[in-house]
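User: Show me a protein chain along with its predicted structure.
Assistant: Here is one chain, sequence first, then structure tokens.
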Amino acid sequence: MQPSNPKSVLGRDLEVLNQATSLVFKEIEDGPNLKAHLFLPENAATDTPRAAVLFFCGSGWDQGRVTQFAPQALHFAGRGCVSALVEYRLSSTHPGTTPLSAMQDARSAVRWIRHHADQLRVDPQRVVAVGSLAGANIAAAAGMNNGVPDDDTDPPLSARPDAVVLYSPLIEVIRNGYGAAQFADASRMKHACLHDHLESGLPPTFIMHGTRDRLTPFELVEKFVKRSRKLGNVCELESFDGREHSFFNLNVDFDLYQYCVSLIDRFLVDQGILDEPEDDLYDAEEETVRLID
């Protein structure tokens, strides 16, 4: 397969973002301000508050494409949600930044959407955080007490999402492991080790993970889920046999992309965040997903 042309990728990204309503949710003194790229449902003028779904792209806190979850965002906008592709600080866009800054950014985004709930017609008690890899790490950490100080420019609102969805999450960071190079002070890796911050009362969490993921071993995710459940939390895991890290992306496997979206939708319905769909969204059986040879 030929590698993607960087110019064509940039063009597609710009085309996607041109369809969004892009708003600054956080001002940054020493770098570009951070934006939330919003996709609004067709009934945007309704007075009925709707759920908000915030997407944090995959990265190692170094670089990432904010448009990664554009297809998923459009799906949930079609389901009546306010969907947002959320920027967060990366070393490629904000040199000298740290993963702790990115964790603050995820919390800032949750607080921002709640602060503007009336203007955006969002139900502040139905805010969902979705992410992959380090984006999943900061989405999950937004619901945890992981010792990262709050940003004092945030409004005084809860940063804990009402539900969390994690694609191939980075559960922990170890010395010389993936993402470790972004921590100038190795002692701060503890803030990104989600195992260490499990407690009762965490938001309902749904995880999708491949059994052959080389960035986060599947066994580590299983351990996380078991410990969280033992504490009384709702923590569901959908395993994908033989799949590696990026199995869920639209450009990797369309069938799996659709299946994962239907699983998320079903999870959010079960948690009371979305209404039952009117169409046949859940009719596809797992057997229709292409199996790895």
